[in-house]
Amino acid sequence: MSTAEAVRHSQVGPVIVMGVSGSGKSLIGGAISARFGVPFIEGDRLHPDTNVAKMPSGVPLTDDDRWPWLDRVGEYLRATAAVGGAPWRHARH
9, 35, 40, 44: which has the highest count of C-beta atoms within 10 A? Predict the structure, then answer.
């Protein structure tokens, strides 16, 4: 069994790729998804509408802006763990 197959068949938790805008997070996340056959979710999809409106206009997010997003990331990870990781296996967001 190759290393990729061993990882694919194990109970490894989600991989979180973080970095500044334009650093290649989506590229790396997509490559990990394709390589190991696991779903990928773009973290920006978890931002509240108020943050999404700020991002393209170049208005930097504050820590107060980020807390609701971090709460949503945590909720998604908890929901995933609670159902045995099923959301990660079912859909690429």
Answer: 40
Give residue-wise pLDDT tens across range 59-88. 889 999 999 999 999 988 888 776 665 444
CATH of the domain at 46: 3.40.50.300
Q: Which two tokens stand for residue 75?
A: 């909720």
60: left (phi over 0), alpha (psi -120 to 50) or beta: beta
Cα separation, 1 vs 25, in Å, equals: 29
pLDDT of the residue at 26: 92
**Which secondary-structure segment (H or E) carries 69?**
helix 63-82
Write out the two tokens for 91. 């859909």
Contacts of 18 (CB under 8 A, 6+ apart): 25
The boundaries of the domain holding residue 25 are 3-90
